[in-house]
User: Which sequence fits this backbone?
């Protein structure tokens, strides 16, 4: 589980146990997360908390990135897709932790 997933899980678990926390998280997610974790949320980051009900189902799609610098070259794709037996520890957090998507 990457750090983002861990944070999300922690927030969900607390919101299931603490109705006041749940209400604060829905109404003011950035301030609530900052208060709960001491993580400073940049003003440019938008956080939306949606509460499902019995008649709702949400699918969260990752952002599309059309910048070519984030695309894998053929060489990099071969490296990560086929039979690489080197160090893969950098994949534990996210692609962003790797330099040019290749573990060192």
Assistant:
């Amino acid at each position: 589980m990457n750090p983002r997933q861990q944070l999300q899980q922690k927030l969900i678990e607390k919101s299931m146990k603490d109705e006041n926390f749940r209400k604060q998280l829905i109404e003011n997610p950035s301030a609530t997360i900052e208060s709960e974790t001491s993580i400073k949320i940049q003003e440019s980051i938008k956080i939306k908390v949606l509460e499902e009900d019995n008649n709702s189902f949400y699918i969260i799609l990752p952002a599309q990135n059309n910048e070519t610098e984030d695309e894998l070259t053929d060489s990099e794709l071969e490296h990560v897709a086929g039979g690489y037996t080197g160090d893969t520890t950098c994949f534990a957090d996210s692609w962003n932790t790797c330099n040019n998507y290749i573990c060192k």
Remarks:
- The radius of gyration is 18 Å.
- Residues 86 and 103 are 8 Å apart (CA to CA).
- The chain is about 40% helix and 0% strand.
